[in-house]
Specification:
- Helix 4 crosses helix 5.
- The chain starts with a strand and ends with a helix.
- The chain has one domain.
- The protein is mainly alpha-helical.
- The protein has a two-stranded antiparallel ribbon with strand order 1-4.
């Protein structure tokens, strides 16, 4: 069973399909971060759209800056850290304000997890697409113990299960790098 279930709170209306109408007093910055600037509202598959955006930002940013090797890995991991440190409290606030546990429109966790998978990938289109596909697979399947991480409370659970899926993707990218 996944965490994407409804919490009943006064003042929050849940529409067909599980979409929440945010209360008038929602925390604007948290909703911007949590939905990754609205990408979480895209249909179908907001997590896939967020992962695709994260992959594109990673690829374009590193290509434009001409970073490679360890420098690219360090910049990517700093990005993961920043997104996680900001995304965890944002996700907690959005979860509380929406009245849902791990709402599907909170996608900042996909950004952090996608970048974990790409952290050691060579900066080329083939590896970027491979990292994208691997992260999506592991994020959907949630192999042990990743599924257990989503049971953690609030933004911590929201973020950590995707970071765990990102680690699985990173390990496969590491193996693939040995031969490709």
């Amino acid at each position: 069973m996944t965490r994407k279930t409804e919490l009943r709170q006064p003042g929050v209306r849940i529409h067909e399909g599980g979409t929440a109408t945010t209360p008038a007093s929602h925390t604007r910055w948290a909703w911007l971060v949590g939905t990754f600037f609205g990408i979480g509202r895209l249909k179908p598959g907001p997590g896939t759209w967020a992962s695709l955006a994260a992959m594109a930002i990673w690829y374009a940013g590193l290509r434009a800056s001409h970073l490679t090797g360890w420098a690219a890995t360090v910049v990517t991991l700093v990005g993961v850290l920043v997104v996680t440190l900001i995304g965890t409290p944002a996700s907690t606030m959005v979860e509380r304000e929406s009245g849902q546990t791990d709402p599907g429109f909170v996608v900042v966790d996909e950004v952090a997890g996608q970048w974990v998978t790409l952290a050691i990938a060579p900066i080329d289109a083939g590896h970027a697409l491979l990292g994208f596909a691997l992260f999506r697979i592991f994020d959907i399947v949630k192999p042990w113990p990743v599924r257990r991480l989503e049971r953690l409370h609030g933004g911590t659970g929201i973020m950590l299960d995707d970071l765990g899926a990102g680690v699985y993707g990173l390990l496969v990218v590491l193996v693939v790098r040995m031969w490709w």
